[in-house]
Amino acid sequence: MRSRPTTTSVLVVGGGPVGLTLSLLLSAHGVRHLLVEAHPGTSRHPKARGVSARSAEVFRRLGLEADLRRAGLPPSHVHFYRGRDLVDPDFVRTGITADPRPGAERTPAPGLICSQDALEAVLLRHARERVPADIRFHTRMLSFTQDDGGVHAELEDRATGARRTVHADWLIGCDGAASTVRTGAGIAMEGPSGLGHFLSIRFEAPLGEVVADRASASYFLTAPGRGGFLAVDNDRHWVYQHPYDPAHDDLAALLADHRALARLVRDAAGLPALDVTVRDTMTWRMDARLAAAYRRSRALLAGDAAHVVPPTGGHGMNTGIGDADNLAWKLAAVLDGRAGERLLDTYQDERRPLARQVIDLSLANARARTGYRIDDELLLTAAYRSTAVLAEPGALDRAPLDPACEHWDAVPGGRLPHLSLPGTPGAASTLDLVGPGFTLLTPAPDAAWQHQADTAAAAGHPVTPRAVPLDEPRWTQFSGLPATGALLVRPDGHLAWRAAHPPTEDTGLLGLLRRVLSADGAAPPRP
């Protein structure tokens, strides 16, 4: 039996970390949306675990950071172990070294380890608090069509078999590497696949005392063919990643034999008497693939639907979270009439080159078998180049990620740098001054800049002036501008523009906002 069509602004397909983050961001921007996920619940397997500093900043802006830190490993466990097995006396344990220079802190929200099953549970709880009726698990999208008026999607309730049609202005595929949205939109994937095959075994075992002097987030085994262990709680709950050869190994027989799986764990751990209880398994394949396009008409891709990143870097999920952060405010601006549809083209212009670089760095890690992470600070330097950024001369020559990690200044396209603001109510960092819309940062309240902001707001393009409580020398060091200058920050925390002085014409800032938003020819903003 078919129910009446549902109408929404955005249909999000996929309820993993990226889809749930997108839902939370859309709610923060006041965008009506529906999220559907084919599975009956969140992931039962830890899967991805590393939350980068940049992702932690996104969750900080959403008010979720504290909950995620409680759900993750303590900071003292964020180390990386290398040894023949878990009891190797000659093990090597490394951590993330903080910059010892005064004032060198790069973020108020350092990266953390929170396994995907715990992460998704936190995200889902908060997403349902915001739109309780519009987060629907055990619901799959069967097919969709699109035209100038929007997207028409056929959904099925997998519990009852009931079908319904949803009409949406935009469709976002956050539905993984085998994306139904990507296939339906006719977008190809490019790049190698089958670079490695792994059996992931989630198990319980009393390993807490064994690793007490070497507690780490990941345990990489140097013995050939043994893979490694991932800590869920560094006590009883673990994941063992076992490499296998699909051409020679009888995987079906192995999966059916929990005693054989337990032996694999014991052999890799170097503990033949270890009491192992296998809880579940999954298999996965290492690919390095990138979608040929991130948008086809009214369908867009995010997360693994757009890019499949080798895990040797720990940034596949984080790249997807960055996609959601970039896309949500742009959808909001287009939907309320402040921006033209061309703004959505900047999503691909900004995120695809970055994903290409992350894939290449991760692939180099996999081939070299040295180093299993991309430095969090590298992602904090990520810089965008598109028409949604009013770039300065020479800026287009810079790659999205700068391996030298030298650019911490406030330049258009880059993330607003973090600067601690002790004693500032409600803002421990410059990052806390941003959002939910565009923000204009000045070193002190300024009548000329306030007039520019008021003029833009009167024309339907609100921007919030905020004073950064810094004296002139510190402001200049932070912004690269004199005391008369200002920074225009986008809702995702990236700088759209900076200027040393207020524009001479009353509509100067308004014109700049319209350029950033591709607003020429757009419908008038909604009141």
Structure description:
This protein has helices at 17-28, 53-61, 65-71, 116-130, 180-185, 251-255, 258-269, 316-335, 342-368, 376-380, 447-458, 472-479, 508-516, and strands at residues 6-13, 33-37, 50-51, 79-83, 92-95, 112-113, 135-137, 139-147, 150-157, 163-173, 189-190, 196-204, 218-221, 228-231, 237-243, 277-286, 289-291, 295-296, 299-301, 307-308, 438-442, 463-467, 486-489, 495-499. The relative contact order is 0.12. α1 links the parallel β1 and β2. The strands form 5 sheets. Strands 1, 2, 7, 8, 9, 10, 18 and 19 form an 8-stranded mixed beta sheet that branches. Strands 5-4-13-14-15-12-16 form a 7-stranded mixed beta sheet, covered by helices on one side. The chain has a 4-stranded mixed beta sheet with strand order 22-21-23-24, with helices on one face. The chain contains 13 helices and 24 strands. The protein is globular, with a radius of gyration of 24 Å. Residues 99-103 have low confidence and may be disordered. It starts with 5 loop residues before the first strand and ends in an 11-residue tail after the last helix.
